[in-house]
Request: fold
Amino acid sequence: MNAQPPAATPVHPRAGRFWLVTTVALLTLAATFSLGRWQLSRAAQKEALQAEIDARKSLPPLDSQAFLALADATGAMHQPVRLRGLWLTPHTVYLDNRQMHGVPGFYVLTPFALEGSEQTVLIQRGWIQRNFTDRALLGAVETPSGLVEVTARIAPAPAHLLELGKSETTAAAPAAPGSASALTAGAAAAPAASASPAVPPSVGSSRIRQNLGLEAFRAETGLPLRTDVSLQQTGPASEGLQRDWPAPALGVEKHYGYAFQWFGLSALVIFLYVWFQFIAPYRRARLARRG
Reply:
C-alpha cells in the first residue's frame, strides 16, 4: 500500500496581507522619517549660514583700500565697509514695489564714486514711501555734494521681482555718462539735494523701475561700475530715507515646519499600523468569542 504524501499546509490569506501591509508600512515609515531628518539638516545648515552672516556683520568695517583690493567681494558678503567718495546723483534710480515694515514704496539706489580710484559701486541708500495718490510723485531725498563718508554693508544686487511688462517711467532727460577721472575730481555736476519735496520723475533725471541689473546699468550709464556686489547703506534714518533693511529670508522656520509634518506622518503610519494590524483584529476576535 503506497503511502500518501502529506497534504500541503494551506496559507491563510490574512498572513499574506499582514506581511504585505507590514512591508508597505515600513517603507513608508522609512521614507517619511528620512525626509523629516533631511529637513532638520537643512534647517541646521540655514542656522549655520545665519550665524556666519551675523559674525560677518560684527566684523570691523573695511576701508576704501581694503574694499578695492577685493577681487571677488561676494566672499565678503554682509561685511561692513566705510568708504569715502562722491554721490553720482544724476544716475539715481527708484526701484518700485519694495516694502519696508509691510508698506509699499521705493528703494533709492545711487552710484558712488570711490575716492582715489576709477571705480564706482551701486549703493542701496534706503527706502521712501510711495505716494498713494500719484505713483510717479516722489518724496524728497537729500543727496550731499562733495566728498562724503558712507557706512554700508556688502550686499547682493537688489532682488529681481516678477516683471509682467518692460515699460518703465523714465525721465525726460537721460542721465549723462561721465568719465572716471571727472567722477573722482569733484562733484560740480551734482546738486546739493537730489530732489525737492514731491518732485515727479519727469523733472530731473530720476527713474522709476521695477528691476535693475548691474551689468545692464553699467552698460547704460557708461560708469566703471562694480557688478559683483552692491552696498546697503546702514545707520539711522536720514536724508529722507529709512534703512530698516529686511533680514535675508533663509526659511529656517519653513524647514522646521516641513520636518514636523514628515515626523507627524511617520507617527500616523505607526498608529494606523498598530490599530489595523493588532488592535482591530483583537477586538473583532473578542467580539466573535462573545457572540
